[in-house]
Design a protein that fits this description.
- The structure holds two protein chains of two kinds.
- By secondary structure, chain A is α+β, with helices and mostly antiparallel strands.
- Chain A is built from five helices and five strands, in the order αβαβαββααβ.
- Chain A has one domain: Glutaredoxin (3-Layer(aba) Sandwich), CATH 3.40.30.
- In chain A, about 35% of the residues lie in helices and about 25% in strands.
- In chain A, strands 2-1-3-4 form a four-stranded mixed β-sheet.
- By secondary structure, chain B is α+β, with helices and mostly antiparallel strands.
- Chain B has one domain.
- Helix content of chain B is about 30%, strand content about 25%.
- In chain B, strands 2-3 form a two-stranded antiparallel sheet.
- The longest helix of chain B is centred in the last third of the chain and has 11 residues.
- The relative contact order of chain B is 0.13.
- The chains are: A alpha+beta, B alpha+beta.
- At the A-B interface, β4, α4, α5 and β5 of A face β1, β2 and α2 of B.
- β4 of chain A pairs parallel with β1 of chain B, so a sheet runs across the interface.
């Protein structure tokens, strides 16, 4: 049984029609899957099927541990939203540092789709003042936002 | 570089306990600085700068 309802699929497809640059969803899961790993993986695959601008790469958290290290993923299910630049220099992908841990449900799902759109356009949607303030940060910042499915 | 994680508190209860998440959203900046609730963009920026001890950089 698919994860996305027909109505959701149609709505997401509409959002995806506006995508410009390609995006890839790099997902980490486990063979003996954790509680929401299977649903998350199915959702990622269903989203990738809705647009040829969206691709999914599914990795095993244990077996593909160098990939997990590469994307700084330390728990699963995990989804990294990356920009793809086929014409650009290697590694032909842009990591904006966006990670989703857990199955993105409810409001998180909308945020997830919006993030795919932002990564595709390369535009954060932040104000100029915000960008100016953030540009002055010269050290690593790790932000973790905890939510619950609503 | 700024890394941002969206974390489902129910699926990672050990983290919800570690960061004492009661109401959501709870934003944790660099492990020890907390912002509770959905705050407007300029305020979140201020909180990030405060977490880094850099409020004076506000333009």
């Amino acid at each position: 049984m698919p994860i996305l309802k027909e109505r959701e699929r149609k709505e997401v497809q509409k959002h995806f029609e506006a995508l410009t640059n390609p995006v890839k969803l790099v997902m980490f899961t486990q063979k003996i899957e954790c509680e929401y790993c299977e649903e998350t993986r199915m959702m990622v695959e269903e989203l990738a099927a809705l647009s040829d601008k969206v691709t999914a790469e599914i990795y095993n958290f244990i077996i593909d541990e160098e990939m997990a290290e590469k994307y700084a993923v330390d728990k699963i299910p995990a989804i990294a939203i990356l920009g793809v630049h086929p014409q650009g220099p290697s590694p032909k992908e842009k990591d904006y540092g966006i990670r989703y841990y857990g199955f993105p449900a409810g409001y998180e799902f909308s945020a997830f789709i919006e993030d795919i759109k932002s990564v595709s356009s390369g535009q954060s949607g932040l104000s100029e003042e915000t960008k100016a303030a953030l540009a002055q940060i010269d050290e690593p910042v790790h932000i973790q936002v905890f939510t619950t499915p609503t | 570089m700024i890394r941002a994680d969206a974390i489902e508190a129910i699926e990672f209860p050990h983290l919800a306990i570690k960061y004492q998440v009661q109401g959501v959203p709870r934003t944790v900046i660099n492990e020890t600085y907390f912002v509770d609730g959905a705050v407007p963009e300029p305020m979140m920026v201020e909180e990030v700068l405060k977490a880094l001890g850099k409020e004076s950089l506000k333009p």
